[in-house]
């Protein structure tokens, strides 16, 4: 492998580590985004993946909205919380220093690879280049996997999935990408239900919708593609070390 290609791989590895650190910091800032619809009747909270994890319905919501507009208020609150989450992501990235490209030299990169495997001594040039070849093969596999799943992902992200609360009084429909497209209520039940029960059943319907999307969505497509191998290695440091020939 040429020195230029090795240098490029080192730069990619360094940038990837820095970007991952930035993403973790941004995720912490964005987690728990909360927003309310314009009337103040509905408040939703998002988890660290941008999904609705909590719903609160204000006492007197019927006076604020009328008894038939709660579904629109829920969708509006989700949209506001999503925008707030994106703003938190943007602020977190803006406050961080930009990623420096190509800042890892040959010896430092070899040392970091060895530390990742838990080894004690420095890597030889031959071992370092062998590890970098494996990294390149892994990157190429990811690139091929992206081509493989791109069409399928587009369809999965556009598909819609519906979940219902346990008593089937509330239903929520989301896309494979997590966007909320519809919230529906049993109108007769809604006229008399307590706001605490409405909130609880709405949150349950969101959980059911996300679960249904998860059964047929993006994760399954990735798991069945070449990207699945890279995902498994990312979750298995020892397996990655073996792939990079850093350990037996």
Automatic annotation (TrEMBL):
Domain of life: Bacteria
Name of this chain's protein: YbaB/EbfC DNA-binding family protein
Native species: Paractinoplanes pyxinae
Lineage: Bacteria, Bacillati, Actinomycetota, Actinomycetes, Micromonosporales
């Amino acid at each position: 492998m040429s020195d230029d290609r090795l240098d490029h791989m080192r730069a990619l590895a360094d940038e990837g580590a820095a970007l991952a650190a930035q993403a973790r910091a941004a995720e912490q800032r964005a987690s728990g985004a909360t927003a309310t619809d314009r009337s103040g009747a509905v408040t939703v909270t998002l988890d660290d993946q941008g999904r609705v994890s909590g719903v609160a319905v204000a006492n007197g919501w019927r006076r604020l909205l009328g008894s038939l507009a709660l579904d629109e208020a829920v969708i509006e609150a989700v949209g506001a919380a999503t925008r707030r989450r994106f703003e938190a992501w943007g602020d977190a990235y803006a406050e961080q220093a930009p990623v420096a490209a190509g800042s890892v030299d040959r010896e430092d990169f070899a040392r970091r690879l060895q530390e990742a495997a838990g080894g004690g001594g420095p890597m030889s040039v031959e071992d370092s280049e062998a590890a970098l070849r494996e990294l390149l093969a892994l990157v190429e596999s990811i690139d091929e996997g992206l081509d493989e799943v791109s069409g399928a992902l587009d369809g999965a992200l556009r598909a819609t999935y519906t979940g219902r609360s346990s008593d089937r009084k509330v239903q929520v429909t989301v896309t494979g990408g997590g966007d909320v497209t519809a919230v529906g209520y049993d109108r007769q039940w809604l006229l008399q239900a307590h706001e605490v029960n409405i909130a609880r059943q709405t949150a349950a319907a969101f959980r059911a919708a996300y679960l249904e999307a998860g059964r047929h969505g993006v994760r399954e497509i990735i798991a069945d593609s070449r990207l699945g191998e890279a995902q498994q290695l990312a979750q298995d440091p020892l397996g990655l070390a073996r792939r990079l020939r850093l350990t037996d």
